[in-house]
Every structure is written in C-alpha cells, then in structure tokens.
Amino acid sequence: RVVGLCSGVEEVGAVLAFTFWVEGGALTLVGYEEGRGGEGVGRPVEVEELERVLRLVLTQYAGGRTGEVVLRLRREEARWAVDYDASRTDVRPSEARRLPVRMPGTPAATFLTFHELAGKWMRAVQVPAGGAARVELEVRLEDGRLAGGELREVRRTREGPGGSPVALSPEVAGQLVQVLLPFTEGLGPRTVRVVWLAEHRQGEARARGRVRSAKVERPPPRPGQSWYLSMQEATLLRWREGVVEGTAWLAQRGVEELALWFALGIIAKGLGFFATEGLEWVTKALGREPEVVAGWLRTALKRLTPEEKTAFERLWAKVLLEGEQALSRGERKTLRGLFVRLERVIQEPLNKDLKNTLRQEARVYYAKLYPQFAKVLEEQSKELPIHHRRPLQYAHLFPDENVNAGENLVMLKEHVHKRVNFLWGRFRTARPNPTTDEVRRAAEIIDKHFEPWYHRADEPPGMSRSVDDAREAVLRDLRSRFPGLE
User: Fold this and answer.
1) Which of 99, 287, 416, 426 could, after both became Cys, cross-link 412 (CB 3.0–4.6 A)?
2) Max Cα distance, the chain (Å)
3) Closest to 439 in 3D by CA, of 398, 386, 486, 484
4) Are residues 109 and 181 in the same domain?
5) 311 and 341: one domain?
6) Beta pairing, strands 15-23 & 26-35
7) Count of structural domains within the chain
8) Does residue 244 surpass a pLDDT of 60?
9) Cα Rg of the chain (Å, integer)
10) Is residue 352 part of a domain?
11) pLDDT tens digit string along 122-139?
12) What pLDDT, on a 0 to 100 scale, did the predictor assign at position 229?
C-alpha cells in the first residue's frame, strides 16, 4: 500500500510521511502527510528496490519497537530515499493493534465500498477553471469497515480567469482510496480527517488533486474499551485470517468473557441501535458500566428460549465482526425483535427450572467472587447455601438488574437460612403481590438484623443475641412496616 501511494508521485522533492503506532510487530497507521516537490518530474522508479528497503525498515528496524514511528519517503530523480524516526513518544492510540495480521490484498467488498463513496465525493467537488480549491473530508471507520463519511468543506483557495467550474479527474478518487485503505488496519470506532488540494490547469479537461494529509481523530474512551478492543482484535485476527472461524472461536470462550465482550460491543455501538419503540428496561440496563451490563446479559438472556438465545448470539456476533450493515433487512428486524422479546420476558416471573439454574450459577459465581470460601463451599455444600437478598421470586420486579449480581448474594449457614426463608414466607403471605419498593424495604429490614451472619462459615464472634432474637426483631419491624403481617 505504501508502494502504491508512491507510484503516483513523479515530482522530485515530494515527501510522503506515514505515522504508525508499532506494537508487537503490528503496524497501525495513525497519520499521513504529503509535501509537494516542485523540482521537476523524475524518471521511473524501480519498484522492487523500494519494496526491499521498506520491508527491511518496517520489519527489522521499526517493527521491533513499541511506540510511534514516522516513515518518510523523499522522491529523488530515479529512486525514493527512505528514512524513519522512532524517537517520538506519544500516548498509545485506542485503535492500535498488538497482533500482526497476514492478509494479502484488500477484500473486494471493502475496496468497492471505498471506491463508490470516493467517487460520490469527487462528483460533488467543482474546481474553478484555472483555479484551486481545498477539500476536507470526514471518514468514519469501525474496525476494518467504512462506517460512513461526509464532505465537510470545499473552499476556493485561488480563483481562475473565469469560466465554468471543472470536475475532478477520476485519478483523484483512486489516490484517496489508496490513502484511506491503510487506516482500516485499526480497531474500534474512529474518524479520519482528510484534506486534499485540487487545482485546474488551463487547457486540461479535468482538475487534478492529491491528498495532503489524513489523521485519525478518536472519540473519548469508554469504560472497559481497552479490554473490548483486545478481545475484538483477537477475534478479527482469527476471522480474517481463517485460522479459526470467528464465531467458532467465540463459542470456545468462557461465559463470563463472552458476556463481557457482548456487553462492551453493545456499549461501543452506542444505544442508538436499540432506539426501538417499546424498549425501556433493556435500554436502561445497557446504559450502565460494562461489567454490570455483562452480568445483566448473562441472566437476562437465559429467559429466552434456547433457539432465541442462539439467534441473538449469532446475529450480534455478526454485528461485531462485520458491522451492522452486514445484516440483511430480515436479520436486522429479527435482532431488534429479540430485544423487544427480552424487554417482555424480564418482566415475567421466573419459572422453577430457571430458578434452579440461577441458584447453581450463583453458587459458582460466589466462589469466584470470594475465593477464600471456595474450599469450604465445596466441602459443606448443604450446610452453606447461597442466599439471594432479594429473592428470585421477585426478579421480575427488578428487570434491569442482575439477580445474580455479587451484591445480591450472601453465604449463610443453613440454620440461619431457614430463619430468613421463614421471614420471607411471612412477607409473601401478607403481600402476595408486592410492589418493587415493598420488596426492597423488606430486604433492607432483614439485612439490618441478619448482616452479622452474612458471608460467614462460622458463628459471628461476640454476638449478644441469637439468630432467633434477630428473627423476632425482623418480625416486629415487618409488622410495623406491613400491616396484616402475622
């Protein structure tokens, strides 16, 4: 690609500067500049020699570093002088890759998409006859895909003698595509701001033009973005190189890792994708911190049927790997429909089988959350149940919350758990159809009196009252707060 850009430059003295972030042998282009020469037209350059020098510089000299590297090529009479500067320091860009990708050529679909959009921009630009203009573009990328772009400004920098404006030569579109394609070797959403200069020379049918600069502009980093981009890079590497098909590799990941990847991908896309009528709780849940969203997704998706869950994972993986534009109209409708379906089921009571599944997963998660208890939980499984502070029976009253979140789980000794369950039984009798606030208040009352026994495999030391004293104290508070409770 570097050689391709050089091939269109004949002016002696012209300088092409490529700014890369280099890490782990992977080069990510973050900036490009072209300086005019004005020293006449040179002779043809031997391409093989330029390729040899570039390969040496990029792999042996620059490729072993971590940081920013500026590669400069100066057009001489019959060759390109190649130099590089690796002394500059800068903050690691969010789109930088760590894994080198061996991918010969450019996918045809990617090339055609860029060429089509470049042609559209070219047709919208008119250069004054005998004059010049400055053109500014904004090109939006996501991973290796073109997500869109806009023609931001066309400003005349020199008026001509008069006459009808002149269109640009098709060669300008070709050079623009050559400049933009290397920027696709990055991760996440970003914008490339491009400036090119166009001029018309008297007697010529079309105006000429060259890209003078292209630089990446990044959105503010989101929570957890670094982890997501690392996961995304590893997935794309396997998907693009065909080492392991992307979706198959994803299926090998752990539930925790996959849920977080999905969650971060949703956040990275922005909630605009979910601007679907009827979504309230889903949108609220997805607007939180990545780890919170991941936990919510783990439990919420279990409320879908196996077929629906498989369809969601397949379609959302396709969005992450190939972009939303890769979805057909029917697939986009199906995916939105799955989120509408999710909105409904999270507001429905859990069935018995799902409660049992969530209890088993809560125990596994608790052991990971509190590794100091992992051994005793395994040895005394029946004597040490994991209790949901807000019971699973009321999960539908908290549709945007993860019922298996760490803050909702406590380990209790069995005899303490029986007394807590007794109190919730009294509450259910008094309030068969409680409100969200009533359940929250009842949980707070029970927590206040039983907290000394939470997260303990033994009896709390120095206690002046027993669990039965705590039970009676809770009953008194519940009766005061909920009239009719026996």
Assistant:
1) 416
2) 102
3) 398
4) yes
5) yes
6) antiparallel
7) 4
8) no
9) 31
10) no
11) 889 999 999 999 999 999
12) 66
3-state class percentages of the chain: helix first, strand second, coil last, to nearest 5 = 50, 20, 30
75 and 61 co-located in one domain? yes
What integer is the mean pLDDT of 331-343? 89
Q: Is residue 415 part of a domain?
A: yes
Q: What are phi and psi of 155, to 5 degrees?
A: -120, 125
Q: Are residues 474 and 403 in the same domain?
A: yes
327 within domain boundaries: yes
Same domain, 396 and 463: yes
Distance CA 269, CA 320 (A): 9
pTM of the model: 0.65
The tens digit of pLDDT for each residue in 365-392 reads 999 999 999 999 999 988 999 999 999 9
Mean pLDDT of 54-68: 81
Q: Are 133 and 156 in contact (CB under 8 A)?
A: yes
- CB distance 180 to 168 below 8 Å: no
Q: Select from 18, 185, 216 the least CA-distant residue to 98.
A: 185
In a domain, 363, yes or no: no
Element (H, E) at 332: helix 329-345
Same domain, 175 and 140: yes
Q: 316-327, pLDDT tens digit by residue?
A: 777 777 777 778
Which amino acid, one-letter code, is at 65?
A: R
Q: Do residues 325 and 258 both lie within one domain?
A: yes
Mean pLDDT along residues 58-74: 84
What residue numbers bound the domain in which 330 lies? 225-345
Do 156 and 231 fall into the same domain? Answer: no
Lowest mean pLDDT among 64-68, 167-171, 206-210, 422-426: 64-68
Q: Distance of CA 252 to CAs 241, 291, 305, 323, 340, Å?
A: 18, 20, 21, 22, 28
